[in-house]
């Protein structure tokens, strides 16, 4: 089960390489939510997990904010920690 069954399998991303070979990765929203959830769960507040979430958020070309906020809540994270949010998303 991807992210303990919380992720929407319809949002998986297929990355194709040469000769139609490729990999399937989770959506940016699911990866961001996971990192924020792991950050929230760590006793020492592992800053690398927060940095990973912020970087993934910045790298994503498109984000479904409704789904992202829902997934972050599912993981026990805090959406407000994604500093540098795009002006169009505020």
What's the main sheet like?
Answer: 2 strands, antiparallel
Strand order of the largest sheet: 1-2
Helix content: 40-55%
Strand and helix order: EEHHH
Task: Give unreliable regions as ranges.
Answer: none
What's the arrangement of secondary structure elements?
Blueprint: E1 13-16, E2 22-25, H1 28-41, H2 47-59, H3 65-75
Antiparallel strand pairs: 1-2
Helix pairs in contact: 1-2, 1-3
Short characterization:
It contains three helices and two strands. The protein is mainly α. Helix 1 packs antiparallel against helix 2 and helix 1 packs parallel to helix 3.
What attributes characterize this protein structure?
single chain, 90 residues, mainly alpha, two-stranded antiparallel ribbon, 3 helices, 2 strands
Write up this protein:
The protein is mainly α and 90 residues long. 42% of the residues lie in helices and 9% in strands. It has helices at residues 28-41, 47-59, 65-75, and strands at 13-16, 22-25. A two-stranded antiparallel sheet has the order 1-2. Strand 1 (13-16) and strand 2 form a beta hairpin. The protein is globular and about 45 Å long.
